[in-house]
Amino acid sequence: MSILINQVSQIYKNGYKALDNVSMEIGNGVCGLLGHNGAGKTTLMRIISTLLIPTEGSIEICDIPLKQKNYDDIRRLIGYLPQELEPYKELTVKETLEYLGRISGIPKTQINERIEFVLEKTNLVEHYNKKNKQLSGGMKRRVGLAQAMLNNPKILIIDEPTSGLDPEERIKIRNMLSELGEHCSVLFSTHVVEDLAATSNSLCILTKGKVNYLGTVQDLLHTTQELSYETTVKSEGEVQLIASDYQIVNKIHTLDGIRVQFVSRKQPSIPCISRETTLEDAYIIVNKYERL
Ligand SMILES: Nc1ncnc2c1ncn2[C@@H]1O[C@H](COP(=O)(O)OP(=O)(O)OP(=O)(O)O)[C@@H](O)[C@H]1O
Q1: Which among 13, 43, 48 is the best mutation to test ligand 1's pocket, defined by most ligand atoms within 8 Å of the CB?
Q2: ipTM score here?
């Protein structure tokens, strides 16, 4: 089970280059796609999910070339949760899944069994009879995940599964992704760095349409270690001075003053101490300094 992406670029009709020569391989397990707003995450996911034809480059999904003549075969392998999925308001969760299962060609004899399975996997069993309009944001994302899993896909493409969810729901969804990653390849996009630390074996950071980092979370932390510092100052004015030379990642008000955590590629010229690099630091370092 793998996705092989080779020198893919996407230029939209208005001339905007949303992806610039992206190459990567996504294997088994969970791969997180991280990047700022507009970095190109959704564009890449839509291409892999056969919804957009790339301007340049080639992709293979489980050894099948991503070409229009193979779209039906590829769609059978993929489950996709788009960023915005508004399930039909008046249908119940079960009716929604029945309908989507039918139109995605799941045989009638298997549909109930699949629905029971995905409802259980997404903790929706007790809500199956609720209308979509009665669901919370987190439940709606879980219905989205359930529909993406309906056809027993080998590859799951999940666009921002945790956006707008409270911490408890985010943890539930993260746990689901980890579990799913044991049986198929999961590619999910997020802005939330903690989502990655909790779920991903591998990580791709996109910056302005380019792959800026590709590797494991551990390797990223390793590469960026010793670039994180902190110092304590007395006033906001001093914080601003630090901000003019360094990238501040966190500011904590303490009894002693304002503890400023920042990253720097070079040994800082202000009094400060080293601190352990967090994944958030590493992400900021990669985005700020681009290629490591
Ligand atoms: N149909 C389109 N026509 C022109 N430009 C587009 C189109 N769709 C997306 N873009 C642009 O391409 C860039 C990448 O968009 P994309 O939605 O892939 O980013 P993203 O990383 O998913 O962002 P977000 O995190 O905000 O969802 C953005 O600058 C966006 O404005």
Answers
A1: 43
A2: 0.97
Strand partners, 214: 204
Q: Distance from the CA of 156 to the center of ligand 1, in angstroms?
A: 21
Specify the DSSP element, H or E, that contains 203.
Answer: strand 202-207
CA distance 215 to 245: 29
Pairing of strands 185-190, 29-34: parallel
Pick the CATH number of 3-221 from 3.30.1330.60, 3.90.180.10, 3.90.420.10, 3.40.50.300: 3.40.50.300
Domain locations in the chain? 3-221, 226-276
CB of 278 within 6 A of ligand 1: the answer is no
Handedness of CA 157, 151, 51, 132 (dihedral sign): negative
This prediction has a pTM of 0.88
Q: Torsion over CA of 128, 133, 136 and 142, rounded to 10 degrees? A: 50
Asked whether 42 lines ligand 1 (CB < 6 A), one says yes
Do residues 51 and 207 lie in contact, with contact meaning Cβ atoms separated by under 8 Å?
Answer: no
Contact status, residue 196 vs residue 177, Cβ threshold 8 Å: no
pLDDT of residue 65: 96
Alpha-carbon 252 to chain mean position:
28
Phi, psi of 35 (to 5 degrees): 175, 155
Categorize the per-residue pLDDT at 180 as very low, low, confident or very high, splitting at 50, 70 and 90.
confident
Q: With 50 as the cut, is the pLDDT of residue 288 above it? A: yes
